[in-house]
Structures are given as C-alpha cells and as structure tokens.
Amino acid sequence: MKHRSTARFALEGVEGVVVALAVLLTWPITKRWLWNWGSSSAERERSWPGDELVSPNHRTYTRGIDVIASPDRLWPWLTQIGFGRAGFYSYELLERIVGIPIRNVESVIPSLQKLVVGDEIVLHPNAPGIPVALVEEGRHICFGAVEEMRQGSKRPDPARSWSMYVEPGHGNASRFVLRGRVAPLRKPTPLKRFGVLVEEPIDFVMEQRMLRTVKRLAEGQEGR
Questions:
Q1: What is the per-residue pLDDT across 117-176, written as a single tens digit (0 to 9) for each?
Q2: pLDDT at 146
Q3: Mapping DSSP to helix (H, G, I), strand (E, B) and coil, where does residue 89 land?
Q4: Of 202, 219, 221, 222, which residue is 20 to 30 A from 57 by alpha carbon distance?
Q5: C-alpha dihedral (56, 32, 121, 109), degrees to nearest 10
Q6: How many Å separate Cα 188 from the centre of its chain?
C-alpha cells in the first residue's frame, strides 16, 4: 500500500492553506467562476443519475477534469474512496486540522474495489457515514438517499447528494465529473446559514484538489 510522500504532503499542505485562505476571502466574487469549475455547459445542463436524490428546489454544482487514461484505469480510484479506506485524495493537512486522521493511499487496493447500494462511506470519524444510493460499475457512484426515505434525527439538514461519474472521452481518455446538489435548509438558524456559507468554498477547495489528484494517479497508472 503506497502513501503520499512526505515532500508531497508538505507541498500540498502549503498549497491547501494558501488556496483555502484565498478562496474564503474572495468567494463572494470568485464563486461565479469556481462554482462549476472545470465543467462544460453540456455537463451542467444534462440530467445525471442521482439528481433525483434531492428535490427540484436545490443548488447544484458540477465540476470536472480531463483524464488521459481509460475509464477502466480511472474507476478503481473512485471505488476505494473514504475515511478508513483510501482517503479522499485531497489536502491531508487540512483534513487533519479538522480532526480527520487520514492518510491518502496512492495505489489501487483490490480489497476495496466493491461498492454496493447501502454501503456507507465515512467522511469523519465522529460523524455518520453517507450511504451509497446508486452505483453502476465503471460509470457512476451516487451518495445520498431519497429525501422521503429519511426519517427523524438522521435526516441531514440541508439534504444533499454527491456523485462521481466516469465518462469515456476521445481516444484513450476520460472525463471525471463531480456533481453536488444541496436542498434548502428545512430549519434555518443563524448557525446553519453560516455553516452553509462556509461549506461552499471549502467544498470547492477540497474537491478541486481531489479531481487533480485522481487525474495524476490514474494517468500514472495508465503508463505502467
């Protein structure tokens, strides 16, 4: 099992702190460009599997990146995502600062290559996992649950879905697309509103690093 090198951990940690501060300070201005980072208008406008997990009254973002590797080389990196698994391929230093003792794995782990509907992926050791709602091997993994199925205190507020897609590209290439949908707060409070405002830029910071890391790993694997 290969982990991120100390040098890469340090360099990406510094990058993460700088990027996070810059995005947080400029989000009211830069949001219009970063909200759908890397995605095409066609990707933003189309319907994707998992869109139905959140009611039509929602905020949606779509982010993507070109990967010069075949879909079958890209897919294994996605199926092993999660705390206690291969990590999230993002800024380890920032994750540790918020209490996630994570070490990202930089090799494909055969024992982590199977996800089925109902499995849960843990984001934080002190938080409940998010369920796998839809999965089609080689194509998409959608996390969340249909809102009507959520009961009582376990219902997140706001409700949300988060999905990963692998799309065949030209030649031996792929598109890696992330899509998030967030419903309005059911019981808005000042603290919850503040939380949503902070989550938006932080989600972008962590996800753009994830997209770029998965691209690097899949392209490196392609050349072997």
A1: 999 998 888 877 889 999 999 999 999 875 544 454 456 666 789 999 999 988 889 999
A2: 59
A3: coil
A4: 202
A5: 130
A6: 25
Q: Where are the domains of the chain?
A: 6-222
How many whole angstroms separate alpha carbon 108 and alpha carbon 220? 12
Rg of the chain over Cα atoms, rounded to whole angstroms, equals: 17
Q: Give residue 40's Cα distance to chain centre.
A: 18
Please name the amino acid found at residue 119.
D
Please state, in angstroms and rounded to a whole number, the distance separating the CA atoms of residues 40 and 59.
17
* Tokens 């929602």 belong to residue: 58
User: 161, 142 in Cβ contact below 8 A?
Assistant: yes
Q: Which of 73, 47, 76 is nearest to 60 (CA)?
A: 47
Say how far apart CA 213 and CA 219 lie, in whole Å: 10
CATH code, 6-222: 3.30.530
CA dist list (Å): 175 to 62, 73, 139? 12, 12, 11
One-letter amino acid identity for 121? I
Q: Is 76 helix (H, G, I), strand (E, B) or coil?
A: helix
Q: What SS3 state is found at 137?
A: coil
Question: Residue 1's CB: how many other CB atoms inside 10 A?
Answer: 9
The residues, ordered by sequence, that sit 6+ positions from 7 with a Cβ below 8 Å of its Cβ are none
Of 114, 158, 121, nearest to 143 by C-alpha is 121
DSSP string, 141-187: EEE---GGG--GGGS-SS-EEEEEEEEE-SSS-EEEEEEEEEPPPSS
